[in-house]
Amino acid sequence: MYLRIDRLQIEMPVAENPDPRAANAVQELMGGRFGEMSTLMNYTYQSFNFRGKKTLKPFYDLIANIATEELGHIELVGATVSGLLTGSADRGPAETAPLKDVLGVGNPHHFLNGGMGVLGVNATNSPWSGDYIFNTGDLVLDLLHNFFLECGARMGKLRVYEMTDNPIAREMLGYLLVRGGVHQLAYAKALEELTGVEIPKMLNIPNISNTVFPETKRFMDRQSHATLYRFSPDDYRDIDKIWKGTHPEDGSTLNVVDGPPEGGETNPGAYEPAVFAPGYVPEELEEIAKRLMKG
Ligand code: MN3
User: Fold this and answer.
1) What are the TM regions of this chain, as residue ranges (predicted)?
2) How far, in Å, is the centroid of ligand 1 from the Cα of 44?
3) Distance between CA atoms of residues 196 and 201, nearest Å
């Protein structure tokens, strides 16, 4: 089962530079073949279907624990898309056509179907698909896939990084590049344990260091690239049987932190009257909420 903490894994900048085109590019990192919904669901289903979880516990713990971290990654990508869309449409009344300036900009479904928030689709508005889940049950093959998936995810993030320098997007990208690097290395190390093949020697894939990017280096300076968080009050304790030793790039000691990162507050989500979010007359909803909180 899951517990939920109403915080993001990192502190995100306040949304002040709306950019629906960047929001559309970031959608690839949500619902794309190599997006966060894919990493989340691949590891989640692999953990559901894992056979021999008691006898092969370090490997089960690793997959299940990383799956849980990925829940917080879709949350961060969601916060980024919402943040990039916030304030992108005029906030005037309906009869002034407040959406006319975003007509044909970015993904029209952000305005036509959504409430100026993230959708479960990629950058061409194709829905995320369960077909992206790879789970044969063969542990080595599934881990090899996970390693490849993290490499593809890294490629996607690097290209989105090249498409936008919006501070919200760059903060999310800096963090997720580092965390994806951790997961790449974790799966490489699991494969090394199982097969003897020194997979970590293949890193970086793509062959560019995270230290090149200031937004990424900041998190590395805090040792995020060498840290695996244990996302459970009491379980998944055997991740440290795999996540140990040193980082192949800079020799940092790999360590497990018990519990989630401190993170930052979620964005309160400004009203967007052009899409009637949270309602055409939000004051009425506010009244009802006020009554509930008094009672
Ligand atoms: Mn991720």
Assistant:
1) none
2) 12
3) 12
**Could you give the percent of the chain with pLDDT greater than 70?**
100
CA of 191 to the centre of ligand 1 (A): 19
Q: Give 105 Cα–ligand 1 centroid separation in angstroms.
A: 27
Walk me through the domains of the chain, giving residue ranges and CATH numbers.
7-294 (1.20.1260.10)
Helix (H, G, I), strand (E, B) or coil at 246: strand
Q: Ligand 1 centre from 52 Cα, in Å?
A: 25
Question: For helices 139-163 and 36-48, what crossing angle results, to 10°?
Answer: 160
Per-residue pLDDT tens digits for 234-247: 999 999 999 999 99
- C-alpha 175 – ligand 1 centre gap (Å): 9
Residue 295 has pLDDT above 80, yes or no: no
Closest CA to 5 of 193, 239, 248, 260: 260
**How far does the centroid of ligand 1 lie from the alpha carbon of residue 194, in Å?**
23
Handedness of CA 106, 83, 15, 225 (dihedral sign): negative
CA 181 / ligand 1 centre spacing (Å)? 9
pLDDT in tens, 180-201: 999 999 999 999 999 999 999 9
DSSP per-residue letters across 58-76: HHHHHHHHHHHHHHHHHHH
Residue 27, token pair as written in the block: 């959608």
Q: Which SS3 state, helix, strand or coil, does residue 7 take?
A: strand
Residue 198 annotated as part of some ligand binding site: no
Question: Would you say 225 is a known binding-site residue?
Answer: no
